Amino acid sequence: MRGTGEYNRGTRRGKPWHLTLSLTLSVMNLPTVTVTLNLSLRLLADALGNAVEGGSRYWAAVREFTLDGEGFLDCDSVADGRARWQIEDMETGRIHTLDRVALFEGVRILGEKYPWHLGALLDRKRSDSFTGDALLQCALFGGIIYG
After folding, report:
1. Which pTM was predicted?
2. In what order do the strands lie in the sheet with 95-98?
């Protein structure tokens, strides 16, 4: 399966609130299919939370981050562009920046290379720490390199 994608950020009252993702997928000799999805930032923030609170802890450490008013990691701030996090790849020691652009690019890559993970992301019953980990790796590395 191969694909290409692009995204547009929607706004509500001047604040970004969703991601529109268009993917063109082709499987072997079958006709190509273009799919357009509107993803809420809440969905992306939840997946990021699943990653940093469990799914990616075997390789990633969040070094610079933001907290919400209750003292928890503020995943919304990355998804809506208010913050940039620094995440260390504990296997290599390299520090990677996670911001909204990287997160959106990760979703595009997830859809192109790992459509089963994108399907899980869209289905809250199936989205879990593995899905979040896949999204985070796509956002930072351009693909899944661990696990």
Report:
1. 0.81
2. 60-64, 85-89, 95-98
